[in-house]
Amino acid sequence: MRTLAAIAVILSAIIVGLASYAYFGFYNVAASEQDANVIRWSLETIRTNSIERHAGHNVSLARSLDDPEMIHTGGLHFKEEGCVACHGGPGISRAEFARNMQPQPPDLKRAATTLNDAELYWVLQNGIKMTGMPAFGPTHNQEELWAMVAFVRHLPKMSLAEYEKITEASEGGGHHQAEGEDHGSAASRK
Fold first, then answer.
1. Cβ within 8 Å of residue 108, ≥6 positions away
2. CB neighbours (10 Å) of residue 149?
3. Where are the domains of the chain?
4. Distances (CA, A) of 106 to 99, 173, 177
């Protein structure tokens, strides 16, 4: 019985200590500071497991992700919505502000190889809290979201010339931007 009481006291002290650490503002939330390894691991684990759990339950694809029209449409959305500013693109660096974000926006070439189609769709549809990744579901229909998945799926093998060809039709404005709204300036070239 003493052992159980000791364990309860220790666990209570840990919980009170962690709550006090958070409540009194000891944890530095500045984006200019790197997270401690345990915090980074916790956030990455929560994100990965949440995406795996929630993705794929109610998504369906009527067309092939290899459809050139879908890839082109997805590329236009990628550029017009400012995705290139945070994620970069083939031969294009992230914008300066994105290099200072915590957590760093992922390299989509890598994401295209680590997430399945349903997971990519879910992230685009729902966004990810506290990362700067917006939810496109409220402003884009299912076909547009799948087009973005098709584009991201093809990023790993895409050259700068191919990227420019796919996105050139979007020069001069975005079809989802409100009047005067700026989703971010073009990222700088490498």
1. 83, 87, 88, 152, 155
2. 28
3. 1-28, 55-170
4. 11, 25, 23
The total number of residues written for the chain in this structure: 190
Fold of 55-170: Cytochrome Bc1 Complex; Chain D, domain 2 (1.10.760)
Residue-wise pLDDT for 107-162, tens only, equals: 999 889 999 999 999 999 999 998 999 999 999 999 999 999 999 999 999 999 99
Name the β-bridge partners of 89.
92
Rounded CA-CA distance 157/17 in Å is 49
Query: How much is the CA Rg of the chain, to the nearest whole Å?
Result: 20
168's CB contacts (< 8 A; 6+ apart) are none
**Using an 8 Å Cβ cutoff, are 87 and 177 in contact?**
no
Summarize pLDDT for 55-83 with one digit per residue, the tens.
976 666 777 899 999 999 999 999 999 99
* CA-to-CA dists, residue 40 to 8, 104, 157, angstroms: 28, 11, 30
pTM greater than 0.90 = no
Whether 131 and 46 have beta carbons less than 8 Å apart is answered as no
